[in-house]
Amino acid sequence: MALPLSYLLSLLLLVLLLPYSTTAQNSSNQYAGSSLIAQEKGSYWASPSSDFAFGFQQIGNGGYLLAIWFNNIPGKTIVWSANGDNLVPTRSKVELTKGGQLVLSDPTGTEIWSSPDDLGVVYAAMLDTGNFVLASQNGSHLWQSFDHPTNTMLPTQTMSLGSKLVAHYSERNYSNGRFQFQLQTDGNLVLQTLAYPLDYWSNTAYWESETVGSGFQVVFNEPGSICLTATNGSILTYISLNPVSKQDYYQRAVMEYDGVLIHYFYRKSSTNTSNSWSNFPTLPPNICNIGEAIGSGACGFNSYCELGDNGRPNCNCPKGYTFIDPNDVMKGCRQNFLPQSCDEASSKTDQFDLSEMGRVNWPTGDYGRYDGVTEDWCREACLGDCFCAVAVFGYGRCWKKKIPLSNGKKDPNDVGTKVLIKVRKDNSTFNPSGADLKKKNHSTVRLILSVLLGSSTFLNLLFLLAGFLLAFHFKYWKLKARNPYPVTPVMNLRSYTYEELIEATNGFKEELGRGAFAKVYKGVLEYEDRKLVAVKRLNNMEREGDMEFNAEVSAIGRTNHRNLVQLLGFCNEGEHRLLVYEFMSNGSLASFLFGGSRPYWYQRIQIALETARGLFYLHEECNTQIIHCDIKPQNILLDDSFSARISDFGLAKLLKADQTRTTTGIRGTKGYVAPEWFKNMPVTIKVDVYSFGILLLELICCRKSFEAEAKDEDQMILANWAYDCYNDKKLDLLVENDEEAIDDMKRMEKYVMIAIWCIQEDPSLRPTMKKVVQMMEGSIEVSVPPGSSSFISSM
Question: What are the residue boundaries of the Bulb-type lectin domain, all occurrences included (predicted)?
């Protein structure tokens, strides 16, 4: 019997569409062997109603996030993620293995994230509640995303004692930030700041329920209200009382990156033409009132917080300051003028003035207070003090504040004090705009013309002036036009001429540092908005050919990580080989660590963790694996916010094979060199692990790895002394008189154990930098390291 034509057409259409139906799978459980691939078309498992989906979301034009999101609304709002601090590339895969474990791996097969194993999981499912579960044969949930929230809570979800929502770093950066919403184990519900980038509480709770001993569970009930309950189920307090219906609205509660907990709702019907989320009143009532004893407050250092109409903070810079990163305003502000030197202050110059700001204050961090004084006295006292950045005067009192300013806020009710910001009168900036330069040039020309017009020799000098202006214009045009080496398109590296870099460094005049293979000079790129740079002039190269050098530089230029110094460009002209890096304003870790005053303990451990993350990237995450070969404090630089940046990475590839940095005939620096260099063994990434272990001990103890003038001979070699102190349970000797470190002895002991693992003589015993990062962050335990016979400290 002939089939109806309409049936045949339907069957043909189904066959044609079949290949395209695999990227989204609905209403079914996923069994062993099921997998999803990260790709541009999207790859996910949807819930039965399609309200939620589990799979890969591309973040901007970058990598992919394994996530759960609202699937039926524009924007696909993400509510949970597995790898926020480690986005994966295209062709990465998540698979439910035969053992019932959910495993995320990159295209090389390296595991990025996984659920617990040996649970007896039979299938996985995306539920209509937004909960992704791994279940047993009888349907019981053995693992569920609701038990491991990131920054979001959904209706029907609960938080038990110890659970928390951790804010993202920023709106599009899904790694952990510096705020969290936590139900503490004592029953108190708090909003608190974290000691970013670490994930422990920094003792600043800026909102709390005051339910110590009675709080038991945070419940986001099905109608959509959020409340804190006691053990008997009674409601202790409402976080948000919801007046909208579950049937008509999607809902979520989010610990936002700026420290505000927000209850959002979104109308499901087609009448929602705005395609945006609305929200109920937020917690805390005023985020700007955060007052951190250690930390910046609601916004970054040197900025101030102004409460927005939506209850969220607007971060602003005071007069004379600009954002460190306009794309990350919570990073804080910096002075856009040359700071006052103590020579200027002592010589009573009038280069600075005090600019008044109304109703803005930084209420903590005073280093001087004076009673019974006048406003004029307060002004003069600040102008004559090179440490004074801000003076506050009110009620006959004067307060002095220095950089960095913290806990800044705008208070409309503060009418009794004046805030006086010190700024340079001539507006000399680190990065003056092109408009300012142009205005200055025009003023100069007008002055010259006025003098010439009043002179009897005007006609003679006019020709000289015309010639000068013509030459200047030609030179300016030549500088703007010349660029025989194009910008490298893959990583946007600029190829500079040698003449350009001579002019940028003023003839290589200001030397920042030197080594056996290079010297580094400070430079200013005049025609790139006077950008400050560090120009590294290399002595000898591994290869002499232009193409080979360019290829090696391209490999370095493709690296991109926040804990690496960025390569901006290079020069490969004749015998000249130079590299142009971003300028690091706070110099090297060596100067910071071994200078006059001891850095804070939490600054040191932050620098240690950031350095470890940078090395992990070089070893395992960048396109071409890079072994640094010379990790030491001199090669760790500090940016405007004192974040660690590894420098000189990749230079080992560029140096001549016989070029060394010590008299040992090996690459590296005395005191940081791994033992295998001495034994003619193959060199692997583990040489960097060894060097990092020594560096970590230096950061912990705030002293050099070898001190010939140590008061005790046993303390001369830091690695040996640290092990002895660990073995004898006398770790307090390593941080004598460092109260912050002593108060954090458990963490300090853990870091010493990690360092001992890193400096094992046998490279196979040393952990990878990935494992080092995990141990430092607390995601895996640190086992007891082997005895002292298993490691060597090289001199």
Answer: 21-147
Active site residue 630: yes
Beta-bridge mates of residue 117: none
Phi, psi of 501 (to 5 degrees): -75, -30
pTM of the model: 0.55
Residue that terminates a domain, selected from 220, 255, 284: 284
Cα 616 to Cα 619: distance, rounded to the nearest angstrom: 5
Please report whether residue 549 resides in a domain.
no
Q: What pLDDT digit, counting tens, does each position of 741-770 carry?
A: 998 899 999 999 999 999 999 999 999 999
Q: What is the CATH number of the domain that holds 634?
A: 1.10.510.10
- To the nearest 10°, the Cα dihedral for 444, 445, 451, 452? 150
Tell me the C-alpha distance between 332 and 640, whole Å. Answer: 10
Check whether 76 is labelled as a binding-site residue. Answer: no
- Our count of domains for the chain comes to 4
352-357/390-394 β-pairing: unpaired
Which entry of 106, 385, 630, 648 is annotated as an active-site residue?
630
Q: Which of 213-217, 545-549, 570-574 has the lowest mean pLDDT?
A: 545-549
What's the pLDDT score for residue 11? 40
One-letter identity of residue 12: L
d(CA 419, CA 609): 37
Q: How confident is the model at residue 172 (pLDDT cuts 50, 70, 90)?
A: confident
Half-sphere exposure of residue 223: CA atoms within 13 angstroms, side-chain side: 8
Specify if 706 maps to a domain. Answer: yes
Note whether 122 and 213 are same-domain residues. Answer: no
Q: Is 4 a residue whose pLDDT tops 90?
A: no
Q: What share of the chain is helix, strand, coil (3-state, %, to 5)?
A: 25, 25, 45
661 and 766 both lie in a single domain = yes
- Residue 322's domain spans which residues? 288-334
The single-letter DSSP state of residue 594 is: S
